[in-house]
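YM 10:42: NBS-LRR-like resistance protein sequence, as discussed on the call
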Amino acid sequence: MFLSPLISVVIKKAADSLTEQFCRMRGLDKNRRKLHWQLEAIQQKIADAEERGEELWLKELEAAAYAAVDVLDEFQYEALRQNAISQQPGSSVKAIKSFFTHENPAIFRYNMGNKLAKVLEKIDEIVTEMNKFNFAARGPAPSIKRETHSLVIESEVIGRDGEKEKIVREVLDPQRKRDNISVLVIVGIGGLGKTTLAQLVYNDERVKAHFELLLWVCVSSDFDTVNISKSILEVATNGGGVSTSNMEVLQSRLRGILDMKRYLLVLDDVWNEESDKWDDLKTILFSGASSGSVIIVTTRSKRAASIMGTLRSHDLASLTDKDSWKLFKKRAFGAGVKEPTDELRIIGKTIACKCVGLPLALKAVGNMLRTKTEVHEWRAILESNILDGLRSTGNVLPVLKLSYDNLPLHTKQCFAFCAIFPQDYAIERDTLIQLWMANDFIPTVGSIENLEDKARDIFYELYWGSFFQDIKEEETNYGSTIKCKMHDLMHDLATQIAGNKCSNEQELKNPSIVPKEVHHLLKLSVEGPPKLNNVLKKFPTIRTYLVRDNVFEHPLEEKSSSLLKSCSLRALRFRIQYPPKELGYMKHIRYLDFSGGILKTLPETISTLYNLQTLILSHTGICALPTQMRNMVNLRHLFLDGCRFLKHMPIGLGQLKFLQTLTKYAVDSDKGGSIKELENLILCGHVTLSGLDNVKDREDVETANLTAKTNLSSLELEWGPANKKKTRNYEAVLEALVPHNEIKYLAINGYSGSDFPKWMKETFIIRNLKRLRLQNCINCVELPPLWKLPLLENLNLEKLESLVHIVLRTCEQVVGSKSKIIFPALKILEVRALPNLESWHEELSELVGFPKLNELIIDSCPKLLSVPVHAPILCKLEIRNNCDCFFSYRPTKVLALELWKSFIALKTLAIINSDALVFWPMEEFRSLKCLKLLAVTSCINFTGSLQESSLPTSCMEGPLPQLESLFIWDCQELVEVHVCSKSLKDLTIKGCPKISQEGLAELTNLTELIWLEFYNCTKLRTWPENMEHLPSLRYLRISCCPGIESFPESVQQCLPSLQSLVILDCPALWRRCKSGGDYFHLVSPIPDRVIEIEESD
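YM 10:58: structure's back
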């Protein structure tokens, strides 16, 4: 229970000046004051009542306190409503009043007086019982401010170097290359550091270089083959969603990904002790796995280790006393401070020994003692029997509970709330903070303007105390977001503390049985037609209800007004299509998330949610916002990113003094959405300013004062459709849109001026940029000196139709520079639809250096004659749409060959829709010694033949010696393929109707080939003779190739060992492979088999 912080919230609400003034005017102030002093008296007795275990009394007090919160919130809400009415014109007053039934002050006083009287009656009973129990009064525990800190990286791991090296050597053992797949299990009790050790191995640079694919999946208690398979696919596809639960489909997709690579898979926190379940998953993971693949498993169960391991289990030992003291000392005394006193050192070493080498316990106890400086405080911990239990039971939860008990009261409830999330859930920091605030968990001492700062302090306090871990900053389309996770033991602790108050369906043994008294509920999806009414009826005390996936078409049944009026919801998330006006009855709501749905409009009644703090409409079809949003005086976060149909804003948003997140502002001066509204807003994070072509005067932009908004990290500036007609207004507006000099992301789209502003040319303002996107700036002839920017990592130039050079000869920085390094930090460069771009530099192309460039995309640049010469680590190149300079068969061919010599480190090459590609670029490819993946798509003139001037080749001297994957799609003229890489593992030829078996003659010695696919290659009349010996083949797909009527004998021998065989619309092969055919006995053992033919009418 969290009664003390809850009672504190009620006391503060009862003392709120707005509530006090309103109650006095309504003749209810006497009862308000009585409630206030009674609760102050009760608060002093709570600690003794909890210690004595008077659960019934405490539960009654909790229920009464929540009822009091709701009543006091209603007083405040009504005061805000009356204030909104007083400031509106007559028509608006009528509209607002018509929505409510209690506008009569006498009726309101009567109804609310009864509610407050009932609360006081219950409080009187509680006080009477309290006096009978004779509880002792205690003052509040002192709150000690922990030392401040910024975002920190995971602490240096102590005492695991030797074990890490041992596992790394075993994983990289050359013997593994001869094994099909190995399973190494790390086993040990909870809190010993199994996950941390696995992370050390997983992130070792030698391991990263050795394995082609690294995957990490947290399994936890739910060992379900379908869910694990989906998790692996999601990780392997970089977060791509997996909607199906069909095991056959999942198996096919999983094998297609894993069997093409030597992979390392970590299955973290496995609890399963049923061999059948492991056998089901093993069948998928082991089948056709590339030699040398390794699975690392972490588990507390030795039985699970014996079931899963193929190698000897690694029994993780406890830390030595020496390492235990090092870790404890680092946590208890911090780094870089003076040594502890002799007395504290002696006690500390004894405490460290009692933690029996468990890193989690050492960190928890060390963190707790960091704020305690008195010897008697340390000695009390030493002499407690909690530490003694570690040695006898190995149960670390009591130690973690001890650390939890020493948290401030408000931090305790913030931590316990996290039980709403499933295990291993990636918790987004800002979302968590907004949910804390919605539930009044953040104490309001003084001004409420800095609530988010206080909440962030709590977040990092929990991280610093090891309640959170694995903090990561992830890039998004609009800057970055911070996420964290909880150790499974910490999650167990939060669940234990929260009891029935927090729940998530994923971890309930029976998700349909959610406790009725739940306050906070997270559901990943809802079966059947979801109705909010049903939720409110089933869980009358619910305060947080978050649904992740479902779309509510009509979320309410008829006659739902009374339910919404009486509900206590503070936070609600679901996708919605038609939000009803009745949502305006949710007077207590603070957090409302409709993101990701197909919502187009919001009812005007949303603007009567005067307590709302966070409104999330991201990536919806919203066209307009409620006109009276200026009345939502508590609104702090309005998310509108991805709302591309939103063209104007309601008048008066600038009056919302607490508004700090506004991710999009659509300027439309004619309809009232003037950019001047931004003047007094202290915006944070990201903002997109769209409709800038509607700005009338430069003075309006200067009034908005972007320079003063120092908490903005990301800024996007959008005009309407680009206009060839140059307008001075555009240039004046952009000149006035000066951000502060700490901006990290900048995008400019649709700017029709002919020149960029002075603040970009002088680069001081944009010196800290990491990402820059310039798009549809069709009249700009010159770029600012972007090559000077020391931190720029990502540059995107698109549809700059007048641009000829990226770096200018006239720039002193280049001409006078002693160093040839420009773009010193650039990692990703995209140039798209630049029809007049000729070169990277106007004259001195040898100075154009990209020392960190990793990825280059060139799209629709027909006049380009050069590429970055000095790009020593360029790994990925994508060429799209008529970039003729790369493939020239005219006198400029020598120039084209010189370009390719710049790509010696290239690993991935994609050539898409290039009309200039005709012949197989044998000479061009000779420098690509490191290339692993080549994709050629939709090149309508590509024949694949050798040019007459090309030297004859053989497999001994051919280019692309390390090529592993070759994809050729939709090349209608292809007749030959000239690749003879013995390392080829994946070959796909699709939509190439002119390729014949003779054209594949050079594809020999494919002993490493795993995947082979032919699709719509109608001229293939028989199986290519040179492709008969394929000992590693696991996946074979032949579609719409009717000329292939049989397999040679050597391929027939491979069939039973295939993991997947797909034959579609190949009549002769279909007859041979179907039941009764001469190949049926060969293909019937294949687990994933699809053999079909389209039936004729």
